[in-house]
Amino acid sequence: MFKKILIANRGEIAIRIMNTCREMDIQTVAVYSEADRVSLHVRYADEAYLIGPAPSAESYLNLEKIIEVAKMSGADAIHPGYGFLSENATFSERCKEEGIVFIGPDTYAINTMGDKITARKTMIAAGVPVVPGTTDPIIDLDEAVKTIKKIGLPVMIKASAGGGGKGMRMVEKEEDIISSVKAAKSEAQAAFGNDAVYIEKYINSPHHIEFQILADKHGNCVHLFERECSVQRRHQKVVEETPSPIMTEAVRKEMGKYAVAAAQAVNYSGAGTIEFVTDDDLNYFFLEMNTRLQVEHPVTEQVVGVDLVKEQINVALGEPLRFKQEDLLQHGHAIEVRIYAEDPDNNFMPSPGKIRNIHFPLGPGVRHDSYVYNGYEIPIYYDPMISKLVVWGNNRDEAIDRMKRALKVFKITGVKTSIPFLYKIMDVQAFKDGKYTTHFIQNHEKELKTGQQCSDECKDIAAIAGFVDYLKVTENNNSNNQDINHSSPWKDFGRKKAVGSI
Ligand code: MV4
């Protein structure tokens, strides 16, 4: 067993990983930047070390510094979380050289899946269905026009070094082909230092469905079913759920089998995700593989009953997987929403600042993966995600009701948040019906307008009014007054329909 794990990350995911370490009796080492001196992950860990200035490039991306801290503190392993160094092949390799276990796949898997053209080739060889398109970088522009005409418009031009929507362009008209290819190439060059781009047929009415996989170092691999991630905004996921409302048992079996084949084709070990794009008829195509633990992993944990971080650690220790495919079942339904410090009424502008007061939901079927506390100031240097609210229900309707209940009592003052926007999503008929594509937010822009969000002052006044109300009720109850009104001030709180006075 590992004695000590260094967590090369911050925020909610650092805390999430430390929670599992604590359950497994593993010591934790935090690293932090100058902007994170008072961050919760620093206090949560058994030891914490400053690794550099606020900008990620000088701290959370400084792999040599992090390895130095791992060696100095005597950590046996490093968990990279998501983002930062989690898909950095050099980091995985450097850990190995220093005799530190990298909790993630090896260099070969990261590199093969990291280069999207190589990944496509590898998947084709493994018999995994990929989106019709090219398997070599576009070199000649005239050749590209011919190829695209053959594939048929619309198409997507994607950067081989990209992923997650970065360096991607949709082409709908023939006359736009050349300029789009040129623009995609220069964008890719600027963003990744690699201008290789490839072509994919555009899948109409796209759904983003991904499969969670787990593989050990002995060739065993299982999938933990799908996550539906089609509710996105500018290629950022907003809501994730499992099971997918459009999935069928037959297609799930097929896609799961291909997800496992995809992972095995790169000798994968650890937790990973195979992303597919599907159309309304559930025709499915491999898009890319994410070789890390993902933000949305908790929905899978709630429905499948597996602690993915615990399994990552077991696999990294060289243990065989503790379950077979047939041992895994989906139970109930889980939904996650990402809570951001941003203003949905002002084009989702980040709203960094001090959290004056946070009251988060608890109760049946509610999980809240967070790192903020009263008085915490959200730094401007990193992603402004505050937390992930995850609910579980026996079925999708119960999960949606729970999510609405939880969002209703979730109060944060001091910063603007996406909470009212997320509540609105739960109320859109197409969402309730489970009939949505990646265009959902665009298609329901008007319905999703939250109206003016209560200002901080307005919220504070509401809180004071609530407290005065509470004092009045307490006084009434203590005064032996038999005429008091027994109706509860909470009775209309978050109900679908207001109930009358008792
Ligand atoms: C696609 C697609 C349709 N057809 N590829 C975006 C993120 C990256 N992982 C892949 N993405 C897509 N690739 C083909 N061949 C649709 C998406 C897509 C999307 C496209 C336009 C607007 C919003 C989108 C949200 C999610 C996925």
**Uncertain segments:** 498-502
Q: Largest sheet, if any?
A: 8 strands, antiparallel
Query: Which ions and ligands are bound to the chains?
Result: ligand MV4
Supply Rg.
24 Å
Give the overall pLDDT as a whole number.
93
Strand line-up of the largest beta sheet = 13-12-9-10-11-14-21-19
The termini sit apart by 59 Å
**Into which percentage range does the β-strand content fall?**
15-25%
Apparent shape: globular
Number of strands: 22
Protein topology:
Elements (H helix, E strand, L loop, with lengths): L3 E4 L3 H13 L3 E7 L6 H5 L2 E6 L10 H11 L3 E3 L9 H9 L3 E2 L4 H8 L1 H10 L15 H11 L3 E9 L2 E6 L5 H16 L4 E5 L5 E9 L5 E13 L2 E7 L6 H17 L4 E9 L5 E7 L6 H8 L3 H9 L16 E8 L1 E2 L5 E2 L2 E2 L2 E3 L6 E5 L6 E2 L6 E9 L2 H14 L1 E3 L5 H9 L1 H4 L7 H4 L12 H23 L24
Parallel strand pairs: 1-2, 1-4, 2-3, 4-5
Antiparallel strand pairs: 6-7, 6-8, 9-10, 9-12, 10-11, 11-14, 12-13, 14-21, 15-16, 17-20, 18-22, 19-21
Helix pairs in contact: 4-5, 7-8, 12-13
Bound molecules: ligand MV4.
3D architecture notes:
The protein contains 16 helices and 22 strands. The protein has an 8-stranded antiparallel beta sheet with strand order 13-12-9-10-11-14-21-19, sandwiched between helices. The chain has a 5-stranded parallel beta sheet with strand order 3-2-1-4-5. It has a 3-stranded antiparallel beta sheet with strand order 7-6-8. α4 runs antiparallel to α5. Ligand MV4 binds next to β8, β12 and β13.
